[in-house]
Amino acid sequence: MTLAHLILLLLYLHLSSSRSTPASGPPQEDLVEQKCLLQKYTHRSCNKVFCQPWQRCIEGTCLCKLPYQCPKAGTPVCATNGRSYPTYCHQKSFECLHPEIKFLNNGTCTTEGKFNVSLIYGNTDTEGIVQVKLVNQDEQMFICKNSWSMTEANVACLDLGFPQGVRDIQGRFNIPLNLRINDTECLHVRCRGVETSLAECTFTRRRTKTPHGLAGVVCYTQHEDFPTSQSFQCVNGKHIPQEKACDGVNDCGDQSDELCCKGCRGTAFLCKSGVCIPNKYKCNGEVDCITGDDESGCEEDRQRKIHKGLARSDQGEETEIETEETEMLTPDMDTERKRIKSLLPKLSCGVKRNTHTRRKRVIGGKPAEVGDYPWQVAIKDGTRINCGGIYIGGCWILTAAHCVRASKYRNYQIWTALLDWLKPNSQLAVQGVSRVIVHENYNGATYQNDIALIEMRKPPGKKECELPHSIPACVPWSPYLFQPNDRCIISGWGREKDNQKVYSLRWGEVNLIGNCSEFYPGRYYEKEMQCAGTSDGSIDACKGDSGGPLVCKDVNNVTYVWGIVSWGENCGQPEFPGVYTRVANYFDWISYHVGRPLVSQHNV
Length: 604
Prior knowledge:
Layout: H1 3-17, H2 28-31, H3 34-37, E1 55-58, E2 61-64, E3 77-79, E4 84-85, H4 88-97, E5 103-106, E6 116-120, E7 127-133, E8 141-142, H5 150-159, E9 166-168, E10 188-190, E11 202-206, E12 216-219, E13 231-233, E14 239-241, E15 269-270, E16 276-277, H6 298-314, E17 326-328, H7 333-343, E18 376-381, E19 384-393, E20 396-399, E21 412-416, E22 429-438, E23 452-456, E24 487-492, E25 506-513, E26 529-533, E27 549-553, E28 559-567, E29 578-582, H8 587-594, H9 596-599
């Protein structure tokens, strides 16, 4: 080995072991949540993202939905197998089950040429200038460089048979010097990123004299990869530069570089669930964050954009805009996707009449009023009311396992719209119970899986339970809908600090607390439990509140039952927060027993 080779080797080893910050952005540790990365979230992880209309969320993963579960109304489409489907959703459902059956065109199937994408002028078959042949066009056409991004390039590489998507959209291509390419005639393309073929993207032609340059791509192949200490490893095995994680761009192709973020680079928008999305998705009329915060405060945002545009006009600034003519060459299937999404069943849950905000306490405070907590119920056992419950729709009540026994179901009554034990209000309704389902893994010693379902008895001759003064709370499907320090509400008829009985329904605001192991070492199970309280312990659940709700409201004022009052020590004392059953952990268990359509607010 020569001295020069030795110096290069030592330099490489030094760089490989270095943890210095890349010049193009902060290190991965600054923005990426390492604990979250262990979950290996991708674009199919419905704990972090919404499933598409042709999928449904099962145990945290977006799986294929059977075609007959798609909305009937829609635009007919044709697939590569020559078969017509009643809607885009139907075709995508079939493709999900049979990946070779891809979208071909909007409308009926014809004998005309099929969509085709290819690469030319590359050094290998993994790279080149992108050529497409549209279904209704005779010639091969190029794509304009200024409409080409990682989103479109990932779809193109996937279409070409490279499952890990794109490596780069820049490359050195062997374009013949004598070849005359009129790049004012290239096509513009726009993809969402959920497509599996460029045929699903929207192609337009804009008549302009301004040159565009042509789009090229280098697709990713694992055997050419050379990971370094400064690379981010995607769930699909692909390596990208660390500085490309958490920038709102799906560089991985499976979105795993954008799903575990503590912050976002550049102008990307950070969802409360730790997901970075492109800033253009904010206030675009579609909820992209599972927490809904990308569509919050949008009226003010639109007004700001209008004023900004007016100010620009007043200053007389003008830019050359391609307004001569825009020809739509393919249908906008992203609009069709959004339309199909709007046709999916919607639940009526978690939204009640407006009430003024007051700060009250479960321990101490004044009684609530009718309609304040329409999901709150009382469970009467013989002559006593020792537990609460949460109405989640239909004939179903959610409560704590330690509150009930399956064999004693005849002893229980469900009191809805109750305010005061001693002075029953006129809205009070009493329901019988037909069965009790206690979680099969409930542990009475550790309070793990402290959750149960109560099915109320239907009135004679009725198919459903009728609770005129009750509104169901929504059941959360993702553990990322709410975060530590979010403010939520507890309610119930629990006792005071001095063990004094309480007869009126009371409520109080508490903050969600992260890992509670410091308060309850060896007894707190983070996946199954949630802590909540206040720094001074002044607001807390207590004996008699068990089984009742810890509810949290999202940015769109929809209320979710985030926790069930389970256990705790020293009611109302600092450093002894209440412990609640984490309901999101049991979404599949709940939906299995009550039926998915009853509780699937999203990801049906």
